[in-house]
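This part of the workshop introduces the protein records we will be handling. An example says more than a description, so a record of this kind follows.
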Amino acid sequence: MTDIDRFITGLPKAELHLHIEGSLEPELMVALAARNGITLPFATVDDVRAAYNFSRLQDFLDIYYAGADVLREEKDFYDLAMAYFDRAAADGVVHAEIFFDPQTHTDRGIAFETVIKGLLAAMADAKARHGLTAKLIMCFLRHLDESAAFATLKSATPWLDQIAGVGLDSSEVGHPPEKFARVFAAAGALGLKRVAHAGEEGPPDYVWQALDVLQIDRLDHGNRALEDPVLTARLARSAMTLTVCPLSNLKLCVVSDMTAHPIDRMLRAGLRATINSDDPAYFGGYIAANYKAAAQGRGLSKVDLATLARNSFLGSFLDDASIAAHLRRLDDFCRAEGVA
């Protein structure tokens, strides 16, 4: 392990952009299929991995939804989440705010309660086992209509005290944020935080809509905001957190090569950028691998990496006292490493 790799792994950090269904590793997919008597369109784990060759977001989504079909029982969701938390803790994650897509499951006849109870049980065990805290963000699938999103919000009513916020994911192009203006307003009225994927494949206008129409508290991806200098200035001035996902950007051809990734340009522009893993089972690495890829591709310094970790806590939905405690821990680590 190189010095920078060791530093990245030890760096206390939060993960703010992680789709729990996207952490379904091929080995677990095959095991759950066998446990639940499901026939996969793949003969072996290697066949599953070979299918992870995407040229665009929709290619990924097609296999993502097919893979999710193995998730049937509460224990399946527990096993899925626990596997992620174990990996995240090994990568230095001390807090995670994870997305889940209830519509992916309820549309298959899986009860909302089955999904969330499995995730919540894993969150409790992650805290006991690793001291890792977590929050849930319930996403609406943007390729579905607004009424489906409202139905999902209604299904979540008994669990709202266990859900930190709502998000917007799935196919971006052709499904602008304004499509979900009313359901996001309803979620905000219930006291839920609001986040949205925008500016990954969609244009800068989608970021403007996410800000002004959805009234988001955090921006997921946001790469294409850099195409609009006025938008970039607004994001910097407002300290809007961007949850950037380098290996996802590479795998989905948002960038052609990691040497072309804009993460350092975001920092220089004063943006509160963070590094996250998105759908790590499909995109080639968990959070430490994303830090390492960005560091190598863009020559990030330890100070840059510490700034990204600091941003992850500042952009979290933790209370101020918890954020302050995490920042002290981060500062102690950096001092011990001789990083100012």
